[in-house]
Amino acid sequence: VRGVRQVCAGQLFSACVTSSGNVWAWGAGGSGQLGNGSNSGSAGPLRVTFSTPLRVREAACGDAHMLVVCEERGVWSWGRGSQGQLGVGSVKDSDTPVRVALQAENKALP
Predict the structure, then answer these.
(1) Which of 20, 72, 94, 103 is buried most deeply by CB count within 10 Å?
(2) What 3-state class would DSSP assign to 64?
(3) CB neighbours of 24 closer than 8 A, spacing ≥ 6?
(4) For the segment 32-64, what is each residue's pLDDT rounded down to a tens digit?
């Protein structure tokens, strides 16, 4: 991976954002935190796959999930969602990036 401008690390995985706006992740993937459509881990960097071409500006890693801010279309997340940390209105994991809905009517988890 070339042109790295940011790195972050979760509990058992790591990721980086490149100057071209791509995200690469490696390590444990059991909750989908590598964002490549799989729950398998990887000893080397895998490119995170978005449903639409996006340019990432910043990334943050949680224990087993990631959040990114894109130049267009806002905040996206993936990985473990058991406590609602993905911000998508459910408590399910996601192995691909999903857009976070920033709305006033979002409800608190029970």
Answers:
(1) 94
(2) coil
(3) 1, 15, 16, 18, 45, 46, 47, 48
(4) 999 999 999 999 999 999 999 999 999 999 999
